[in-house]
Amino acid sequence: RQMCIRDRAGVGAILDAGPIEWIVTDVFVTGGLFALTGKSGLGKTFMGIDLALHMVAGRMSWLGFGLKPGN
Predict the structure, then answer these.
(1) 28: pLDDT confidence band, cut at 50, 70 and 90?
(2) How far apart are CA 9 and CA 69, in angstroms?
(3) 65 by DSSP, 3-state: which?
(4) What is the mean pLDDT of residues 13-39?
(5) Who's near 53: CB < 8 A, 6+ residues apart?
(6) 44 confidence band (pLDDT: 50, 70, 90)
(7) What is the mean pLDDT of residues 5-26?
(8) Distances (CA, A) of 63 to 1, 4, 13, 47
(9) Which element (helix H / strand E) includes 64?
(10) Is residue 61 a contact partner of residue 67, using CB atoms and an 8 Å limit?
């Protein structure tokens, strides 16, 4: 089983833009567009909901990664 997180903005474009503000440290960057892809039944929906709930609850980490709390 394999699930991918894809960065549509491109890391090179982000690195040239100056300091990086992470939503999830080393995974999701602020202002980026991402897609969770994989076969049916791998847990993509659960992963997205879990991330959203961690953010609105003000948690500081998600799956071992640093997390910027949101609202």
Answers:
(1) confident
(2) 22
(3) strand
(4) 77
(5) none
(6) very high
(7) 66
(8) 18, 15, 26, 10
(9) none
(10) yes
Three-class SS of residue 36? Answer: strand
Q: CA-to-CA distance for 55 and 48, rounded, in angstroms?
A: 11
What's the mean pLDDT when you consider all of the chain? Answer: 78
Residue entry with tokens 């991918």: 4
Q: Give me the DSSP letters along 2-28.
A: -EEEEESS-HHHHHTTSS--EEETTTE
Three-state DSSP at 51 gives helix
Q: Is the pTM of this model over 0.70?
A: no
The CA distance from 24 to 5, in Å, is: 12
Cβ neighbours, 10 Å, residue 25: 15
